[in-house]
């Protein structure tokens, strides 16, 4: 887990790269985001749709094409997650820019500290948060579990996902 205080997040400098612009991630991008998400699972498309429509998020779009190239969503737990850059746009610092933009947005609009969960094997994501002065919370580990109801009809997902 990485942590950045609200005060520090408000100080982040955001420089949108030439040829790009920031906007919210739109619902029509949910399927693409879900397909690229390392935590994808049955029902995760609906989760991504809800995160896009209900939570803070930031997308980085190409000015010329309007194509979504990089994004970060705020997960249902409040952590930053689903930080992704399209393979065709990697190695340009776009992940760093998006992570900074959503962090400052959370601090300015919600007046909250910012946390991010990063898989221990995801060295690239860890470096992004370290560059933004997030502090790695040593010995903090999170384990996810899922419980399903005994009655398989108790949860209704679209298309029975």
Annotation field: number of helices: 5
Q: Could you state the order of secondary-structure elements as H and E? A: EHEHHEEEHEHE
Shape summary: globular
Which architecture of the domain at 10-111 per CATH? 3-Layer(aba) Sandwich
In round numbers, the mean pLDDT is: 89
pLDDT < 50 runs, ≥5 residues: none
- Structural class based on helices, strands and sheet pairing: alpha+beta
Radius of gyration: 16 Å
The major β-sheet equals:
4 strands, antiparallel
Name the CATH superfamily classification of the domain at 10-111. Gcn5-related N-acetyltransferase (GNAT)
Helix proportion range: 25-40%
Fill in the CATH topology of the domain at 10-111.
Answer: Aminopeptidase
User: Going across the major beta sheet, what is the strand order?
Assistant: 2-3-4-5
What is the distance, rounded to the nearest whole angstrom, between the alpha carbons of the first and last residues? 29 Å
The level 1 CATH classification of the domain at 10-111 is Alpha Beta
The number of strands is 7
Approximately how much beta-strand content do the residues carry? 15-25%
